[in-house]
């Protein structure tokens, strides 16, 4: 049985929950109260090297990082979610966008809206005085415009005929854009892509 170490408000955890639902894979969920610092234990470090959620245990294997988990699940249980060889580079590139550009723009911007600035600063590893919300907003707009351009030309981010792991990776926080005070109507191709994902069999919405 798979065990997901999870928090219902985490966009990265949501990516994994969504993917497990889409591929019809049963799992157990274990709540990790990160706001109470319950992840900062030696026991949890044995599962997640940086004490981050989500983390997944699959038998004797422990995987941390949402993107590593998505790829593990796809390789082991849902290979149809992997882009074919000519497009595998594009799939990995958009996974990297989720891990880098989105993780440094939309993800922290949304965090500043759903928790206090002090809590956001703690999770981002900076002092509260260094929180650059206008910078996050500018970077978010830049990333979303790039995504919107890509999705205006392709139904799915990797250029495939069907969704791939890249779409789920980027969708996790794109699904929560409104919580970052983003008007998704300004990005019509992303809005249409989000609607396509919501129509996939097995889809589950974000949130607790």
From TrEMBL:
Pfam families attached to this UniProt entry: GST_C (PF00043), GST_N (PF02798)
EC identifiers of the protein: 1.8.4.-
Keywords: Oxidoreductase
PROSITE patterns to which the protein is assigned, alphabetical: GST_CTER, GST_NTER
Domain GST N-terminal: 1-81
GO molecular function terms noted in the UniProt entry: oxidoreductase activity
Keyword Oxidoreductase: yes
Group of enzyme by EC: oxidoreductase
GST C-terminal domain mapped to chain residues: 88-208
Gene3D superfamilies registered for this protein in UniProt: 1.20.1050.10, Glutaredoxin (3.40.30.10)
Keyword Oxidoreductase tagged: yes
Family note: Belongs to the GST superfamily.
Protein name, UniProt field: Disulfide-bond oxidoreductase YfcG
